[in-house]
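Intended use. Records like the one below are meant for learning the mapping from a protein sequence to its folded structure. Do not use them to infer anything beyond what is encoded.
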Amino acid sequence: MSKNLFIYRHHQIDLVAKRTGVVESQRMVAGQWIERGSSGDGDAVSKIEGGVPCSLEVLRALPVLKKAYGDSLHKVLHVGPDTCAVVSQLLREEDTEAWGVEPYDLDEAGANCKRLVRKAIVRVADIKFPLPYRAKSFSLVIVSDALDYLSPRYLNRTLPELARVSTDGVVIFTGYPGQQRPKVAELSRFGRPAKLRSSSWWIRYFFQSKLEENESATKKFEQASSKRSYKPACQVFHLKSLP
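Structure written out for the chain above:
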């Protein structure tokens, strides 16, 4: 593989998800080697060693989320690594306001990300503790990757918080069991390797934690995915907000 086919984190990448219609030239902080076509003109990201980061999958899923959630996508909070990239794309959507919480350090953030932080659109916050927002501050909360690095003890704190600050639900993007991720990159950034759990584990956890799945949103998301021939590279769960 030629060296110039690879770029590393904090370098410009072109994201084109042709099947979903998402086009994004955005600085991503994937923390993993990403292969792109030698033309560099927007070929779909073809390989990410260690698996696809779910924050990138959120970008691919945006057209489907818009179909499933409609007006609920007008005031969104994204929580997870690479939130600057996700928030930047959301802000390009018509009639959409967006904010982000980055659970990890942004020491090497690019200029666009630093601008979002200066404007308090993106915050760096430890999601194991209460979020710095009032109840029902956002119509929808989207969380990607971050929950894979939390033990059940901290999930018990974090997931109810995400449901607390939303009005129309929480969308969770999480990795599939068996996906390999580079442990050196994980430990340096996240402090621990990802714990990739099965769908049955999550469903059982939601039930035990009294977090109700949003069956209507799940059905709409699946229908929109089918129409667009979209197959998520991550598990996607839809929860209701707290009453």
